[in-house]
Give the backbone structure.
Amino acid sequence: MPEYIIGLNDKTYQVSVERREDRYVVMVDGVRHEVRLAAQSPASTARSLMPAPQGGLVPSAAPQAPAAPMVSLGADGMVRAPMSGKILSISVKTGDQVKVGQSLMKFEAMKMETDIAAPMEGTVGAIEANVGDQVEQGDPLVELR
């Protein structure tokens, strides 16, 4: 089952989705939900999800690489850790211009390595974490302006 880390209203959820005939099994933070679609919208033909500039997920009609985990972006422009983990590498430096979805750093959580992606276009104002740092959910990582 594909797994996603989804940020919503400054809270992070671990979600997996599995299609079964006329329904979906959705696991949200370990709680199982069975979902049936009343009608299929045109967006349901999308093959993947990608970060939206506003800080959510949007369908992408073309095949894409798996979506990066969602991170919270505060009103202060601070990208925060989606969960507890370790910083493996940093891909940007102060002053760099970044695009939505661009990798800011590599992060290891629950024995899985993943990218922390820019949730918006902007300039890196500050980098608040260092390679090797253990961070907790919500800790500041990168400031975007």
In short: DSSP finds no helices and 15 strands in the chain. The chain has two domains: 3-39+47-60, 72-144. Residues 15 and 43 are 19 Å apart (CA to CA).
